[in-house]
Specification:
five-stranded parallel sheet, alpha/beta
């Protein structure tokens, strides 16, 4: 299993996105199941919906529900993510810190992302 960041899905969904071609290339090569969080859904659907229209956001949402394992944020996970956020002194977003915590919880060491902030996290290999 591999964790997938919102930048990956936004890249796939938007032809005008700077990472579109790279995201399609990664998608072609990936044969692992994808784990995401409800924050990834929120970020991705919101951005795609605002730029491409609500229908495009809904299609992306349906893809997530049908094809990804979804980790839902609870108070313990959020508290741990806040500690990670502080450890990186705010240079990781809270959503990214939450992704890191989910990856630790599920013993996942690979993330599909075009966000280079993940490169500073020891033990995580970014696929891009």
């Amino acid at each position: 299993m591999i964790f997938a960041d919102s930048s990956y899905f936004i890249g796939i969904a938007r032809e005008k996105d700077r990472w579109h071609k790279d995201a399609l290339r990664v998608a072609e090569r990936n044969n692992e199941a994808l784990l995401i969080s409800d924050l990834i859904i929120s970020e991705s659907v919101t951005l795609v919906g605002s730029l491409e229209g609500g229908k495009a956001g809904k299609i992306l949402y349906e893809y997530f529900v049908d094809n990804c394992k979804i980790a839902f944020i609870d108070s313990d996970l959020l508290e741990n993510a806040m500690q990670t956020f502080l450890m990186y002194d705010g240079t990781l977003s809270l959503a990214d810190a939450t992704s890191v915590e989910i990856m630790h919880e599920h013993e996942i060491d690979k993330i599909v992302s075009f966000d280079s902030d993940f490169d500073k996290v020891n033990g995580i290999k970014r696929i891009h």
